[in-house]
Amino acid sequence: MLAAIAAASALAFTPATERRVDSIAEAEVRARRAPGVAVGIVESGRIVYARAFGAAEISRKIRVSPNTQFAIGQISQEFTAAAILLLVQSSRLSLDDRVTAYLPDVTAARYVTIRELLDQTSGLPHVTDWAHLVKAVNRGRFISPPGKSYDPNPVNYLLAGLIVERVSGVPLSDYVQQHVFLPLVMDGSLYIGDSGIGADHAVGYRPAHNAFAHVELPSATQSAGDTGVISNVYDLAKWDIEFPLLLRVDAVREMFTPGLQGSYDLRAMGWTIDQRGGRRFIWQNGELPGFQAMNALLPDDHVAVIVLANVDDTGTSAGLPERVAGRILDVLEPPGELHVENAILTRAHEWLIRVATGHIDRAQLTPGFSNYLSDSVIRNAHIAAYGSIVSIVPIASMPSANGATAYEFLVHFTNGTLHYKMTITPDGKIAFLSFSP
Fold it and tell me: Which fold has domain 342-436?
């Protein structure tokens, strides 16, 4: 949340910082990890950096610019959530209304609230029949009871988008255009399937045999309120600066309140509520065929970093935009070193090796986290790909739920750097582990 009237930050975006950011983004294009990358940085309510590198379209040799439009995937959820909250502000619905109050034909959701859709805690079935979404949802099996567990499911935001349409009487894209994009002067933003795409828009690609293969975007029906927005770094910077002026304070608070307090992933309405180097860190990433995106905020420092790329999943634990945004944030806000007990450092090192090798001692974990830490979660961390550990530097220690303590480390490997978080309960059990760029 980076209000335009934010006080001057302690940061100052200097030419030296600019060169370092240039080199981070350029390296991804030179290494052929993406055809094109665009980066935007906000500091104290101003866009201080907007640059792009590489190709928007390879065959026609169109270069990326800061105005180039990219599909932004699940970052679109922020706009669907904002549309719902604007309808709440105008007293046209309540977050605690049942879904069936507005979509009576979605009988499976008769005990699901709008809040649970936005928090992704509805438990609704996953479906693949987008052309018959409502029938498919009604025929499916619930993943969990409503409100009990976080489950990222496109159905949640597709249904939320349909509620916006039912209440407002206009298509979701029209409502967001009139009530979000126009007031914030987001002239380069639209929905998949709408007119207005620029001639230099980015084409999506997938890595293919040391080259890139063109990928088609999904249909408007498949994306809509979940992944349907096309935007650019200028517009997303305006969004990060100004959405607290569009929404009331209570609406912003709702947007940033996790649906399940104390869960492993503190997911709110289109955002992940996190910490980085002891600071509040609020972010969302996105992926669609041919595209990846990251929108990252350090709200207390009045800093935002936006990274867009026209390439999809490369098979690593963190996508290209997350990796680039993480390195940029470490340039903008260098993590400091913290003294912790040797026993904590030893434990951190032990579990880094355990995750890298898959040798998990579940007796050291809380029961809930042991259930969460499945074999697939461990494999998807891809820790071994970073090589040997060079150093583990403690950078933050924070009180967590139920008397636990959350520690954050900066881990330098031979092949890169990771932020590593570990939460330890008062009785010495590990309640959480995470790894990010």
Answer: Nuclear Transport Factor 2; Chain: A, (3.10.450)
